[in-house]
Amino acid sequence: MTLILRDKASLRAWRAKLTEGTRLGFVPTMGALHAGHMSLVAQARAAADIVIASIFVNPLQFGPNEDLSRYPRPIEADIEKLEAAGVDALFLPSVEDMYPTGASTMVEETLVSGPLCGAVRPGHFRGVTTVVLKLFNLVQPHVAVFGQKDAQQCAVIERMVRDLDVPVEILRGPIMREADGLALSSRNVYLSVEDRAAAPLLHQSLQTVAAAYEAGERDAEKLAQIGLDVLAQSDRIKVQYWEVRDPESLGGIARVGASGALLAVAAHLGTTRLIDNLLLGGDV
């Protein structure tokens, strides 16, 4: 049975009772759980003695015209999935508990968070780093697992942990996909039938560019254009960005070299925003 901890006081009391030397794994989520989240839980279980998850739809990382109010919140179904996965505890706080009246401190990473989603969602990663650091301070995990689908989020959190000397090991879980290649996402439920049919083109564009890279293409601009050409097959896809970036700093590159590259795409299908990415290996 998964223990439900509904406020910070309960979490602190639970954490204080853990035996010294117990390795604690943590999977922070916003709920609407799917097989991708469950793979992160399995990874945490393999790396720790006890696993705690959190479900918190963080208002700080949503912009004024984004989907905070309609973000899916199937909490009972989520709890059932976590119990089936053997999660030991679930932290399920309220917004008021996480952000008490008068709270005014924010945490901001200023380099890795700048391009890609950071450029089109101002303030998003400041909300992410603020809530993640708060969760790390409360849970005090030894290891935390985040999904590679949110590659920039992973990079921002890794940089925050490094820069602020946070004693948490960060693990990345691989992207989980539908049979047709669409990356699993809580937002996929928003897709219309027509948009769902077009959505796998995001992954196809990444695969097509990876094939061009394997065939010898190294020019970043040409690789990105190949990806855009794939997405142009559907007028339902409104591309926000298609980028070839340094895999660590997420800075722009002219050519894919020894360090490889992150291929990253974001697009709207109807009112739903989807992201996907793929890592290219570097030249030897």
UniProtKB/TrEMBL annotation:
Beta-alanine binds at residue 61. Its EC number is 6.3.2.1. It is found in: Cytoplasm. It comes from the Bacteria. SUPFAM superfamilies: Nucleotidylyl transferase. (R)-pantoate binds at residues 61, 153. The active site is at 37 (proton donor). NCBIfam families: cyt_tran_rel (TIGR00125), panC (TIGR00018). Catalyzes the condensation of pantoate with beta-alanine in an ATP-dependent reaction via a pantoyl-adenylate intermediate. Homodimer. The reaction proceeds by a bi uni uni bi ping pong mechanism. HAMAP family: PanC (MF_00158). Belongs to the pantothenate synthetase family. This is Pantothenate synthetase. It comes from Devosia subaequoris. The lineage of its organism: Bacteria, Pseudomonadati, Pseudomonadota, Alphaproteobacteria, Hyphomicrobiales.
